[in-house]
Amino acid sequence: MSGTHVDVIPAVHITHTVPVARERVFKAWIDKQDLQKWFIPDEGYCVLFVEIDPRKHSKFRIALKDSQGNQHLFGGIYREFVMSERLDFTCEKNGGGTQQHKTFVSVQFFDNNGETKIELIHDNLSDEKMRDEYEKSWNLMLDRLESYLKS
Fold first, then answer.
1. Superfamily designation of domain 12-150
2. What is the pLDDT, as a whole number, of residue 8?
């Protein structure tokens, strides 16, 4: 009997502290107007629209446009929704006729003396390239979130 070796792609793990109250940081993750200001994964991108119904088992969609005019649609379903504490959701790229790969994102929000510690895990990634791209994008977006909320 021969064994099968399966390479496991490490998840993205990010911890980021924002000097803003937890309730406000959480709201920025579930409010259309807030998401349009910070949910931008790379330079040259802009948000075209956000459709969101922030509750467990509901769907969301976010459309982006890159600097070359290409559109990118992301969507998912909230698997867990605990107000001001936790969001778990699926994430899929839904455009261009490409194969869709469902990934999973878990975000926890912790009160830290008036600041908010965010712990984000993004897993079920298909390969190292995808992992590296998501890690870069999440770090950029969390920096953007912090700048937006401090302004």
1. START domain (3.30.530.20)
2. 78
The answer to whether residues 75 and 60 touch, using CB atoms and an 8 Å cutoff, is: yes
| 104 close to 90: Cβ distance less than 8 angstroms | yes
% of residues, the chain, pLDDT over 90: 87
Residue 11 gets which letter from DSSP?
Answer: P
Domain boundaries, the chain: 12-150
Sign of CA dihedral 83, 106, 70, 53: negative
Q: Count CA atoms closer than 13 A to 81's CA, side-chain side.
A: 17
The tokens describing 10, both together, are: 């490490």
**86-93/71-82 β-pairing:** antiparallel
pLDDT reading at 25 higher than 70: yes
Nearest of 48, 31, 10, 151 to residue 87 by alpha carbon:
31
The predicted-structure confidence for 53-88, as pLDDT tens digits, reads as follows 999 999 999 999 999 999 999 999 999 999 999 999
Name, in order, each residue with C-beta under 8 angstroms of 141's C-beta and a sequence gap of 6 or more.
38, 39, 40, 41
Which residue type, as a one-letter code, is found at position 46?
C
Instruction: Give the residue among 9, 7, 29, 12 at the shortest CA–CA distance from 122.
Output: 12
